[in-house]
Write a structure and sequence with these properties.
Blueprint (H helix, E strand, L loop, with lengths): L1 E10 L2 E11 L4 E5 L6 H9 L6 E6 L5 E4 L11 H6 L5 H10 L2 H4 L6 H7 L2 H14 L16 H15 L3 E5 L7 H12 L4 E5 L3 H7 L2 E6 L2 E6 L2 H13 L14
Parallel strand pairs: 3-7, 3-8, 5-6, 6-7
Antiparallel strand pairs: 1-2, 1-4, 8-9
Helix pairs in contact: 3-5, 6-7
Length: 258
């Protein structure tokens, strides 16, 4: 699905990643950890193609769809909350608006009426899923047609998270996804990810959340990507055992090239 081979990346003379490698396969649930400035965000940006490595190779299966939730930035325009969550195709939101106003023929060249076009795009199914997802993330039914620009930054992030969960990309990239969630929405999100059909690679400082979601930890340390099998607590135990020179327990493969 995703292969990173021997990448190097430097900033201002400081080498962040050195011959770093990572393999993400279908079904993997990986927590990406390391101190601030270690290179976690840089690695995510390289995966997304927003930055280029100085050397090395990054390849993504051409059939693999990716979705990304950034840590803080979630821009909104003139859309409504529900429209953010279903915005998976360029025609979905305009068709939904035409369906509500019944002015499709006036504003579009498509010969289909808005109801037929919306059904063809999967809009009714996406909308039902979006409403369920938004409710799980704490939105009330009365919020769904609310202008998104009225939302606080945290609630805008929830709306964008809902869109990703409706989309269900093959590889879900999350940067501190629990930052803006209250306990109710956090528990719902946690349960949802436990049954997520795709792969997950996420940066998080929420230890308990990582314990419940991931099956391996990749630590960014001294420019390397070291992979530990198990959740966050098991990662800590393995790393401590390695530091003492002890053999890892039966679940551990120890740090390894990913």
């Amino acid at each position: 699905m995703l292969s990173i081979v021997n990448i190097n990346k430097s900033f201002g003379g400081r080498e962040l990643l050195t011959e770093a490698s990572l393999q993400v396969n279908r079904g993997d649930r990986i927590g990406l950890v390391g101190p601030n400035g270690a290179g976690k965000s840089t690695l995510i940006n390289i995966i997304l193609g927003r930055e280029e490595p100085d050397s090395g190779e990054v390849s993504v299966d051409r059939r693999c769809s990716m979705g990304f939730l950034p840590q803080e930035t979630a821009t909104v325009g003139d859309e409504r909350v529900i429209e953010i969550a279903i915005n998976l195709h360029a025609d979905l939101v305009p068709t939904r608006r035409a369906l509500q106003k019944d002015d499709w023929q006036e504003h579009a060249s498509d010969p289909l009426d808005p109801h037929s076009r919306y059904a063809e795009l999967g809009g009714f199914g996406f909308e039902a899923k979006a409403k369920k997802t938004l409710a799980g993330l704490g939105f009330r039914e009365s919020d769904l047609e609310r202008p998104a620009r009225e939302l606080s930054g945290g609630w805008a992030m929830r709306a964008h998270l809902a869109r990703l969960l409706v989309q269900e990309p093959d590889l879900l990239l999350l940067d501190e996804p629990t930052n803006h969630l209250d306990l109710h929405s956090l528990l719902w999100f946690q349960a949802h990810l436990q049954n997520y059909p795709g792969s997950i690679l996420m940066v998080s400082h929420d230890r308990e959340f990582l314990n419940r979601i991931v099956d391996s930890i990749v630590e960014v340390r001294f420019g390397q990507l070291n992979r530990y099998r198990g959740n966050y607590d098991e990662f800590l135990a393995q790393r401590e055992a390695n530091a003492r020179g002890e053999a890892p327990n039966w679940r551990s493969s120890g740090p390894n090239s990913c």
